[in-house]
Amino acid sequence: xxxxxxxxxxxxxxxxxxxxxxxxxxxxxxxxxxxxxxxxxxxxxxxxxxxxxxxxxxxxxxxxxxxxxxxxxxxxxxxxxxxxxxxxxxxxxxxxxxxxxxxxxxxxxxxxxxxxxxxxxxxxxxxxxxxxxxxxxxxxxxxxxxxxxxxxxxxxxxxxxxxxxxxxxxxxxxxxxxxx
Length: 180
What we know:
By secondary structure, the protein is an all-alpha fold. The protein has helices spanning 2-19, 24-32, 35-70, 79-108, 111-149, 154-176. Helix 4 (79-108) crosses helix 5.
């Protein structure tokens, strides 16, 4: 009986969240994450931002060219074939892009600057690939966290309901635990 009531309350919570455009799993992750984790992610976002921007700027043109050229293969071939074509196209296109950028940096700045940048560019590209989706997730969590503190909002009510349900579930588990 008590378990069924909790199940109904959980469904009600899920309905409130869906009405506000939030998935239950995202909400649960937000509610169970620690403040230290949130602060660490905020610091990481700030520190990695310059590398993500530089990596994006450096790789956007060859990335766009490879995508545009590989679109010609979409209608005739399977996805795995398209991935192979992207790989085969990207090798020479990225080599040309790196050579042009290296040449321009060597002429405009210095050879050591060109070598340093070309050594760091692949890592900046990897950071950029990971950074932008992580930033989107961070912003979503930040907005949810901010909404959770606004009194009277449906999201704040969902937070209170979640905490009450968590407390009740812990009580049920502790009362049925044979070690107790």
